[in-house]
Amino acid sequence: MRALAPNDEVPVREAQVGIDDVKAEAILELIPESQAPCPPSRISSQSVPVVFQNKRDSKVTLVWVDAAGRHHERKSMAGATRHLVQTYSGHAWLVLDENGKALGHFIIGDEAAEAPIQ
Predict the structure, then answer these.
(1) For the chain, what is the mean pLDDT?
(2) Mean pLDDT over residues 10-38, rounded?
């Protein structure tokens, strides 16, 4: 399974095509790397839109972790930007800082969500 993601990166206050149509039903929590390492994704066919919000001043990188635990770099996000990703329930997304250090990860739930990165 793969995560589909538009290539547009826009400032938080601007509209990305389709991003304003996402009605988030949940706010995901970034699980710190110091608390738990990022697990592999769970295989699922339930598509879920997620809006990642980089609220930091610096760049972050979104990395999808597949069911075998392999890392797939998907998106580099400048500071104060957001990005819409069409992914799947149970998928794991690792967040790296500008130096490639793991900040933490998100586990995608069953409903449309926002994923704030502080």
Answers:
(1) 89
(2) 81
Task: Decide: 29 and 110 in contact? Cβ < 8 Å.
Answer: no
Give the start-end residues of each E strand in the chain. 10-11, 26-27, 31-32, 47-54, 60-65, 71-77, 81-88, 92-96, 102-107, 113-117
Q: What is the pLDDT of residue 3?
A: 42
Contact 52, 29 (CB under 8 A): no
| Domain range 10-117, its CATH number among 3.30.450.20, 3.40.190.10, 2.60.40.780, 3.40.50.1980 | 2.60.40.780
Strands 26-27 and 113-117: parallel
